[in-house]
């Protein structure tokens, strides 16, 4: 079964860091661009956050997280990461990993990040 | 960034009746490879999004044929020919043709 499972979310104070992980299974992970998408509030729209190419050499970020978030991957372990530094209240969201940013066909169940003092 | 505007944002439906959701993009969505990366998703509370249609009109495997996508240029539509109870939830469009990928606000479908 093709599957993505996120982990690492939680409650964190403003200015602190958190690392999200996304475990892939059921497909050849190293063949795909991978992406992180977030939903900041229930019922609100989705926002693309970051993207990484199969080799892990090209990364793209939404302007609001540039310089604070880093997307990376470990193809040997079938893992996708999102290192989030200098977190702000506005980063509070459910974070989803997904396969293929242009045609996201597989999504994880999401992990919740709450930034609050 | 490309703005994706959906309408309506709330759609009361009747079981067995048709339903239609519109999605308009602020810019043409033709990618350099000639494709238009316009996708439709369905999401139920507490669940991850499920892709229903990709590249305007291609239905994903396992998606009932009562769902259909159409459109061109900047105007796209998702239609449900006969609404069933399991179709409730939020539907949203998404463009992957231009960076960054962007999503519509979502349309809440309720019986």
Q: How would you explain this protein's 3D organization?
A:
The complex is a heterodimer of chains A (117) and B (111). Chain A has 117 residues and is an all-beta fold. Chain A has strands at 3-7, 10-12, 18-25, 34-39, 46-52, 59-61, 69-74, 79-84, 93-99, 106-107, 111-115. In chain A, strands 2, 4, 5, 6, 9, 10 and 11 form a seven-stranded mixed sheet that branches. A four-stranded antiparallel sheet of chain A has the order 1-3-8-7, with no helix packed on it. By secondary structure, chain B is mostly beta strands. Chain B has no helices and eleven strands. Chain B is globular. The mean pLDDT of chain B is 94. Chains A and B meet through strand 5 of A and strand 5, strand 9 and strand 10 of B.
Write the layout of secondary structure elements.
The complex is a heterodimer of chains A (117) and B (111).
Chain A: E1 3-7, E2 10-12, E3 18-25, E4 34-39, E5 46-52, E6 59-61, E7 69-74, E8 79-84, E9 93-99, E10 106-107, E11 111-115
Chain B: E1 4-7, E2 10-12, E3 19-25, E4 38-43, E5 50-54, E6 58-59, E7 67-72, E8 75-80, E9 89-95, E10 102-103, E11 107-110
Parallel strand pairs in B: 2-11
Antiparallel strand pairs in B: 1-3, 3-8, 4-5, 4-9, 5-6, 7-8, 9-10, 9-11
